[in-house]
Amino acid sequence: MSVPTTPAGIHLSFPHCCFLVLLFGCLLGETNGLQAQNRMIHGFVINRLSKEIIPFASISWKQTKKGALTDSSGRFQLSMPGTEQDTLIISHVGFTTVQIPLSKNDTATLLVELALKQFDGVVVSSRYNRGLFWWNKVVQHKDINNPANFNNSSYQLYKKLEVGLNNVNREKLTHGVLKPFEFVFDNMDTSGSKPYLPVYMTETLSKCFSSGNPGKKRERILAVQTTGIKSDVVLQFIEGVNHTTNVYENSIMLFGKEFISPFSNHADAYYNFRAADTLVNGGKKYLHLFFTPRHEGENTFSGDCWLYSPTWAIQKVTFDISPTANINYVNRLTISQEFTQLNSRTWVFSKDKIIADISLHKKDKQSLLIHQTVAYKDVHINDPAIAALLDNNTEKEQVSVNDSARMRTADYWQQERPEPLTISEQKVYKMIDTLSQLPLFKQYTNTMGFIVGGCKKIGIIEIGPWYKWISASQLEKWRLRFDLGTTEQFSKSLYLHSYIAYGLGDHKLKGKAEGRYTLPGNSGYSFQASYLHDLDNGGVAPNDDGVSMDNMFSQLIRRPNIRQKFLEVDEVKAGITKEWSNRLSARIFMTRTSYETFTPLPPKKLLSINQNDIDNTELSLSVRYAPGEKKLVTRRKTIRRFGKAPVLEAQYMTGMKGLFGGQYKYHKMNIAMSQHLRLTGWGKIDYQAYAGKIWSGALPFMLLEVHPGNETYYYSKQAFNLMNRFEYFSDRYAGFSIEHNFEKKLLNLLPFMRKVNVRQFWNIKAVCGDLSPENKKLNCREYSNYRLTSLQARPYVEVGTGLDNIFRFFRADLVWRLKNRAYMPTGPQQPPIAKFGVFGSFHVQF
Fold this sequence. Notes:
It is a single chain. By secondary structure, the protein is mainly beta. It has three domains: about 40-115, Immunoglobulin-like; about 130-435, no CATH class; about 605-610 and about 620-840, no CATH class. It is about 10% helix and about 45% strand. The chain is built from nine helices and 42 strands. The strands form seven sheets. It has an 18-stranded antiparallel beta sheet that branches. An eleven-stranded mixed beta sheet has the order 13-14-15-16-17-18-19-8-9-10-20. The protein is elongated. This is TonB-dependent receptor. It comes from Niastella koreensis (strain DSM 17620 / KACC 11465 / NBRC 106392 / GR20-10).
């Protein structure tokens, strides 16, 4: 048996050791008794907006100077001071310091929220800037550290998206019409600084495969569950954050706006960088770097990150948008991205979190709070099996949904979630299901939808829009209209719609009946048929963003001294549409149309073959390819979000003489290309180029290409805004339009404009066309009321500029019509030609 020895070499016998142990135990017990007399204060320290924990924050008493640090999970524990009252000081590098007065009797657990400091511009007097040196090292190594650059990768992806009402005042909202829903407010989350009521949540679990070059992705959705209040507006806001963020990229897209990444190759022109401190954790050295915007009014961020010193990889980054960033309705937006080490030199995505506070009002008012959490699991990289799987992709990004994805049990979700739901999140599913079943709630939501969207659902039918119930025109005087359509309660595959209208001035009944049937599943086939008997009311194109003449406000914004021109159309149409998953679509339609003209347009007997009717039967085939495009489809309309690639369209039409009474034989061909481009730091460009030709004998003007004009003060992107309707027409033509929105790039050169959110743009539209001798002879004669005119192979050009985002809604356009040499005769009913005009429009945009 060995003999215990003290450090000084004194030998202790076993009885001596026992005695010392007993003595130490007594002393320890006495010490514990003394500690028990001192009360302890406990708490957590978190980021005020992102709710992320803040490790290693400093906690100290102001008078006694005693303190501690929070642990890696943001927790702290500190004994109360001996004084009656003291102030607890909580601080961390880059955050504002918080001071909390406490008395010795306070024992509550504290939740301390720290806000990031807003650093002013930093002037570095030394030639050596340590923060800039660290940033430069990250940029030099980002090709190696960026997980998007792996040859290929696979991972399990968990995505949780939650939407709620923030800063809810229960007392104000539980009176009057909302009192029956008071039970909803029992589910409010009050753990934060402001009361928060969840109203929508979706969870998705997927298996993902991706490759860097060529860029391909395949996602197989294993499980999904959604609950909450759905609306087109909410879904549009959600789309703004519902994507993957990568801080290594040069730019980050949020709500359709481009932000300069703090680790862009040219970020030193947009950011100030400041080195904070270093930390050794588990034998690994991390560097703490802060970044702030250099200038106001630019789409940049302020935040901090931790860098892994040996490889200059980002371990974690958290940043907020600049308070003066040029984005609407977003009061606050915080992004947190974490990476985990796969091996000694490889870092992969671990967790992303985006929190957006959206409101039509100013800060500190009721708002919409969106949380998105993305977690990665079971990451594998550079696996030949992944490459073989992606080689079978039929498109660049391919998504499939398991048949059992929506039938997963609660036990399945509890096992597969990377982190458990909070108490408030657990209540969302039950609360929303209960709320949606209340008849009074359905009544309120339908009424609100009727006021905002224009349509009201009543069981299986829908009426509206209300703003078309009454309108006016120079031909009909007052016009009454009533619409009726079916809802999803009637059928999810079959949609029926009709309207009836009556003109009090012309005493004629008009209307339309249409139906659309979509085959169930993912076949992409749909069948359409319609009958129309109405006036051509001025719409330029099916997706025109202008104001239809069949609108109660249309006469208020018409330009003066221009007589309205109408065609009466009697049309039967039927066709098939096929859409493929790669965004290729094709349509084939048969159309039978009869036309009637009204003064001041030429009478149809002068244009008709038999001096009586103008009847036409047409077969058309349209093809559209829009790679990367996303769609938000509703019963009445489709909202398209363009991808990065150009959209290609082609249409072929032929006249079927003799079929269903058709009188004309011809061939038409139209092609078009359009694209939405982002220019890093210089805004965005939208362009369209198009051309067409008609091979035929003499055709009346309504079967030719009537170049779109606009006779209102509401600006139309699809039309020539200083061209009158039916002013020019062609049987061969080519044109283009281009608009460059600088956003605030040039306005920021003026210091007083940096905090103003207006945006500047310029645009140009041009078309050149001509008529064959046969069509000139038929259409360009000396009619008594109105002279139809050709461009005579000379260009028509409009240029414009203006300001957008005025008061966040309005746009003002200044448009000039350049002089063209095409002969434009003047007749008794010829409208005036404007060389300059001011137009307005409004739209909701971020």
